């Protein structure tokens, strides 16, 4: 597929997040209620937003894994979902083949 992940292991998490966002072509944000409750996930999202603003690159790709009503989303998340690329995760097995192809294509852009 030609896609690599940047796992957060081996160094201070904040430094690792900044380094990974800067070295990555795209930052995949898997939108769930758990993500919205995590301070580290908010930090990672903010770092990706700063990278996009500083470089002018479209670095964010949202994967809408579970339905979260728009009134529960932080304003910057809602704005970026509307303004950026996003893909919805199909919860039926028959739609997943096409989903993985679309996700791989979006990550390569």
From TrEMBL:
<protein>
    <recommendedName>
        <fullName>TIR domain-containing protein</fullName>
    </recommendedName>
</protein>
<keyword id="KW-0812">Transmembrane</keyword>
<dbReference type="GO" id="GO:0016020">
    <property type="term" value="C:membrane"/>
</dbReference>
<keyword id="KW-1133">Transmembrane helix</keyword>
<keyword id="KW-0732">Signal</keyword>
<dbReference type="InterPro" id="IPR035897">
    <property type="entry name" value="Toll_tir_struct_dom_sf"/>
</dbReference>
<feature type="domain" description="TIR">
    <location>
        <begin position="1"/>
        <end position="107"/>
    </location>
</feature>
<keyword id="KW-0472">Membrane</keyword>
<dbReference type="InterPro" id="IPR000157">
    <property type="entry name" value="TIR_dom"/>
</dbReference>
<dbReference type="Pfam" id="PF01582">
    <property type="entry name" value="TIR"/>
</dbReference>
